[in-house]
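Extended Data, record Phosphoserine aminotransferase
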Amino acid sequence: MRKFNFCAGPAALPEPVLRQAQEELLDWGGRGCSVMEVSHRSPEFTEVAETAEQDLRDLLQVPDNYKVLFLQGGATAQFSAVPWNLFGAGSQVADYIYTGQWAKKAIAEAQRYGRVNIVASSEDRNFTYAPGPDSWRQTGDAAYFHYTPNETIGGVEFDYVPEVSCPLVADMSSNILSQPVPVEKFGVIYAGAQKNIGPSGIAVVIVRDDLLDRAREDIPRSLSWNVAADAGSMDNTPATFAWYLSGLVFKWLKAQGGVGAMEALSARKSSMLYDFIDNSDFYSSPVEPGSRSRMNVPFVLADDRLDGAFLQQSEEAGLLNLKGHRSVGGMRASLYNAVPVEAVQALVDFMADFERRMG
């Protein structure tokens, strides 16, 4: 029996996608074998790859002068790939906004290959808000400007796209495909798949063509966007099953109405939960209202001694993976595209009942 899964990642996948994959697992397309058992260079899998790319382009309205890559290593590999690919054309300085754990990891990797200027930081208020442009301290000659539009752990989301003169780079792992994106404002968008795209094992990189020749000469081949682009993301054997499943998710998203429909759904789901929390004395959100994520909703109980009981009873009620990240504690409900409204309603009902019984 399927339960409601609020995991931050690997996250819930659409049930129709899982059912199709189940049906095709042993006999994909009448070929008598699984998609995992065919050559990635076969005409059949080439069609899967090309269709997935085109569907993603359609969903995000990616301009023609951008490459769309499907790579291994997740977003973490891109923490290294970004400086490797962009520090080879002059400036060895990059601007970063520091808003939480994932920005911190990206910064640490960039510092290994060049100098990082912290444009703004929300550390002063325990990473509970997204800094506005009025607080920026830019270098003026940065090779690129990097930010994390949605911090999965802290539940902080930017409500604006930075306006900068150098290439804008964004780690959209936890909010890609949840709303329309003005791709033309970005030099690079990258995202791990395991939240809104598909299963873990693959990452998407959307990179503007003119940035493909800015890599350092000593870049590892496996991190080169240019190499990947020339090889159609198949310089080595790709994660074929993850790519195939991601393609099924793109089809499902199109059938739901695309990213515009997901934006409305995300607003509805997150408002349900935040409104309940804000009207309760038993629960509270640590994130400042103007920076609250629609994808990841952290919350705490007034008495943290009840955390264990809350987690045990919520799981017994069929609400899975509500424990907050180990670095911040408390609870966290991730409301990605595949999490239905019914799941959020069930969570709110449980929280209300738990408060009545334990408050």
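Summary. The chain has two domains: 15-255, 258-358.
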